[in-house]
Amino acid sequence: MSSNLKLISNKVNTFCAFRKLFRALKRDRALLLIISPVLVYYIIFHYVPMYGITIAFKSFTIGGRLFEGTWVGFKYFNEFLSSIYIKRLLRNTFLLSLYSILWGFPIPILFVLALNEIKQGLFKRFVQTVSYLPHFISVVIVVGMLIRFVSPGDGVINMVIKLLGQKEINFMNEPKYFRTMYIATGIWQSFGWNSIVYIAALTGIDPSLYEAAIIDGANRLKKIIYITIPSILPTIIILLILSLGGLFSVGFEKIILMYNPVTYEVADVISTYTYRRGILDAQYSFGAAVGLFNSAINFIILILFNSLSKKVTNIALW
Amino acid sequence: MYNKKLLCLICILISLILIASGCATTSKDDVTKGTEKKENAENEHLIVKEGSVTLKVANYDLGSSTGKSYTDNLPVWQEVEKRTGVKIEWDVTPSDQYTVQIQTRLAAGSGNLPDIIMMPHGQTMTYAASGVIIPIDKLIEEHAPNLKKYFETNPTLKSLNSAYDGSMYKISSDITGSLYINPFVWIIRKDWLDTLSLNEPLTTDDWYTMTKAFKENDPNNNGIQDEIPIQAYSGHRFLMKFGEAWGLRFFQSSGFSVDKDGKVQYDYIDPKFKEFLGWLNKLYKEELIDQEFTSITGDELWGRVARNVVGVFPAFTTSVAAGTKMLKDNGVADGEYMAYTPPKGPYGDQIAEHGHNFSGDYAISKDCKHPDVAIKWLDFVVASKEGNDLMMYGIEGETCTKVNGEYKYTDLVLDNPNQLSAMEVLRDYGAWPYTAYIQTYEAYQAMYVKTPELLAASSKIKPFLVAPFPNIIGTDDENSRFASIMADMQTYLDEMIVKFIIGQESFDKFDEYVEKVKLLKVDEVLQIKRTQYERFLKVMDSN
Predict the structure, then answer these.
(1) How many angstroms from the chain centroid is the CA of residue B518?
(2) pTM (two decimals)
(3) Centroid of chain to Cα B103
């Protein structure tokens, strides 16, 4: 008897839950409609093609279906990991990313904190706008300018060096300058754009907090440390976690424009090596294997840092 | 309220107009102006009844400065349609997008592939392996007499065109004519040679003397030592061309050469390579080679040419005119570039490798419903005398005339009233197409008849031209093994070579370098190449 009652009450509960869900969907149908194109886009172009990652494990022939192709298991992963350059590639990829984050991450924050101290006006807006502009310049042009500036014949930098009595330096052929040039131009190009998020976060700070601080006798520095930074700290941490999630994905375009065989030992990264190998043949399977390898590592790092952050600061992506 | 509604309406209208203009397709009407209807009743090339079969042809579209496209039904192709009876439906895309879109369609595998496809570079055999394109050697045997004869009289080309099992999957443009008339050479400032009273450089030692004089004696007369004697760009690839003076085949053959016993060797580990690198290093140290050759691009090269500082640069012979014009346009009135014979090396080698004979692969897809019609059409367009004349010379009476049985270009082509180059005029007519065809040496001679110095230069170089190591089609297994070894090997070679050239690596380490190359499985690479070469010879002899 009681078992029957339990069964019925279970069924009633599920039915009520469904009713609730249905009502919620109906109530929010306008919102769902707005978001549906984006949802469909993600499902079709990002989730469904995930199946294609299987070509990393197959000897994929073009023209064949995704379901065909002989299974080769980890052959391409092994090929990639047994390259004599694998240590160098991993090291270069990791270091370029790490240094980019180390140097490039704080700069927008410092910039925004400084900008915040300027009174609203023409100068402030001018500085802000000028800082965004490099973001819109194509990386090809930025590297072109860089090569002109560091040219040993008639580049500006070498002219200054010669004026100081030193011998001119062929920067593009020296491995020790590569990272500096890569990261410096990267920071110049992106810090303005990246500061936008922080500026937006700053506008959300309650001005009465500042007023209270002044009453308590806080000077400029103390206001920054105790009010501004803590208020934008969640934004900072989230963005940091996201950047760390891209630690093993260094884009190849800028490096290809900047590197040459002499600087391979610092500049050759996973993506450029795979690109060169791809030219010899349409090596889709190899490329997919390397891409999967990259993504797997990035994913692990992301989860690691996310849980670390949750433990330490209580702020995390999930 | 009324104003708001009106504003909304206007905004919607404007956005609709913008969308509509983005989707507009310009319908081009058939341009038939000036096409003479040849009353020639002899139409022995008629393949099918007029208009009964349509072939879909996928190709790069014209990059015409006047905006013409193959879909405009250009005069030459109208003639082709008339004479073969086959209607052509052009499936063309601008060249920078062509490869990507055709690869996607080929990868999709089937359905609606065009009948004849210009294959993406280097991937013909991959698609052949998966059956997307069909073998055509039997079709050629049965239906294409001109192609058959062409391969019989050119056994080397037949072998180059055959896959490892002897079958053929493609027809390519035969650009041998252009290789002879327009070789890739070093272009030197002729007026600087005159100013400094130098003779044209004949040996590699002469080259050292000449470049030293360029650097130190201020031939551009501006008081500054700003001359760049040798301007290579985009890395060390062009500098490797000098290796030909040591008999080393890097530029076109990727280091593979056949020694006097007929065995394939790898020139990157040849002992003479050390001497050659030493010569390059000497020149680089004394700043006779541009110090920035690793990072300079082609655009920067032309900028420097214009600034009157470049003594020598690598290019096709036709760039002689472009270089000279660049100088004259930038105030250097006596500036003149010229192409000269390749340098003779310390062992007496004096050669210049020409490029590969084939360019652009045309294949027949498996969706083609009339493969016999397709092969007959290709036979006409690519290999028949009449088709060839159409492709090379265009429309008789407009772009060419027949003088004493030989074709000559008209003034419309050679001296175009709208300042178009000869090639542009012919291409707008549909001649010299981006499809597959045979480019004849005679046609080039006819085109360059107005620039005799160019013809003179190229005929001086012609005796020294040698064929590169053949581009043999490999099996899937050979290709994947080759690719996986070369991935690391090429990285190592490039690094070491540039380091040797710029002096970052001492030449005492050369033997270590050779050892390392051997460790990287160069023997396996050589074994693959030797097997392929044997196959190549076998098909050649099987005629």
Answers:
(1) 33
(2) 0.80
(3) 20
